[in-house]
Amino acid sequence: MFLHLKPSNFAAKYFKYYRSYYTVKRKAVKDENYIARQIYQKIKVKGPLTVADYMKEVLTNPMVGYYMHKDMFGETGDFITSPEITQMFGEMIAIWLLNEWQKMGSPKPLQVVELGPGRGTLSSDIVKVFSHFKALHKAKLQLVEISPVLSEIQSRRLCSQSHLCSEKMVVYRQGTSHHGIPVQWYKQLSDVPSGFTLLVAHEFFDALPIHKFHKTYSGYKEVLIDIDPNAETNNENSEPKFRYVLSRNDTPMQKTLLKPDETRDHVEISPDSILIYKQICERLKATGGLALICDYGYYGTGTDTFRAFKKHKQVDPLVLPGTSDLTADVDFKTIREVANNEGGIISIGPATQRDFLLKTGLEFRFRALKENITDKKHLENLSECFRILTDKDKMGERFKFFSLFPETMKRILDKCPVVGFT
Ligand SMILES: C[S@@+](CC[C@H](N)C(=O)[O-])C[C@H]1O[C@@H](n2cnc3c(N)ncnc32)[C@H](O)[C@@H]1O
User: Fold this and answer.
1) Nearest CA to ligand 1 atom 18
2) Family per UniProt (predicted)?
3) In the chain, which residues have pLDDT < 50?
């Protein structure tokens, strides 16, 4: 077929560790304890932090946050997400988007929006497929990315030229893709202009801050992060240590977020995600389009999923904050609830990654690519990538797909159900 194979040896080797991204090359601050000390000072002044505040500080602190100062580093890098494993993943997403867009009558102008594009690989594969099918007329690529370093890496992957914009503009970087369409970068979805939108979020929501609650004999308490008094020293260069504590009184978030009929021992809720789900629904209702959300997660049943990854291993989220990736599973039931509360939105899913990809035609693509490969190693590699994406004990079951459509699509979707979810 039309695209060249680029399977990753690295993927096969590290398939066990899905949630590891970027080799850490500190630019601004080399001190591994820097964020820990900032958090320590914050807690000294303000008291224990919520897990959400801790995640925000660790992941997106403008100076040293985990996402804010990573370089991307080819062969030696230690990340692995589905789009990085093989181009087949992005191609299937692109084919799905094209198919659903065509059912809508291929409205133009069209903006493809990706939330948290990482290295820009998924967007790049989507644009390539759209270009192949001549679907880029009056199209734009809009990227929502908080990290200046990653936005630069994305621009190198996607654009023939790009530049930073004036600080007065909501677009902070813009360029032209290798296929000739405009590409623009924003810090948040609410800044992306309204208009017909095909929105994709792959492993974006699991990176957003969560509040954690724990059931006790005296009701739910919010889980907070405090300084560990057993590890306090007078040496200001030592590594501060933290521990989990429970709030003494009801916290504002507990009152706002926890449902009265909640029964789980541990509950994790991401108000930042809820806000973005709402914005997506409002956008789809106002100007049409669809959203495809892909992430690892559960449907209303998850409990204690907050964790950290460093160099392909799960580590303690409270140790050396800023040197590891923090993440929590996505609750797809919450997306449906937001959509239902908003009204005028059809929510479909979740489907497992395996089901979604196979129903979208991954196996056909896999066979077509195989037919053109003569090199044995290359062939083995491609087969391994296929297995990593679809096997139940690899990424096939844990990763889920969920889609949102405006209710105006109901008649069409009743006739031609959404591919990948039936
Ligand atoms: C876990 S990575 C996923 C990367 C990519 N989608 C993939 O699957 O390879 C999360 C991405 O979201 C971005 N991100 C994290 N928090 C963000 C926020 N609050 N706003 C915008 N982007 C954010 C990160 O910089 C990164 O690009």
Assistant:
1) 146
2) Belongs to the NDUFAF7 family.
3) 1-7, 10-12, 14-27, 71-78
**Per-residue pLDDT tens digits for 398-414:** 999 999 999 999 999 99
207 C-alpha vs ligand 1 centroid, how far in Å? 7
Q: Tell me the pLDDT tens digit for each residue of 296-342.
A: 999 999 999 999 988 878 899 999 998 888 999 999 999 999 999 99
**Domain ranges, ordered by start, for the chain:** 70-79+107-210+270-343
Neighbours of 13 (CB within 10 A): 12
CATH code of the domain made up of 70-79+107-210+270-343: 3.40.50.12710
Ligand 1 neighbours, Cβ below 6 Å, are 21, 60, 67, 81, 83-84, 116-118, 144-147, 150, 202-204, 207-208
- Measure Cα distances from 314 to 124, 211, 227, 323, 326 in Å: 29, 20, 22, 12, 10
171 Cα: distance to centroid of ligand 1 (angstroms): 17
The whole-angstrom separation of Cα 364 and Cα 358 is 9
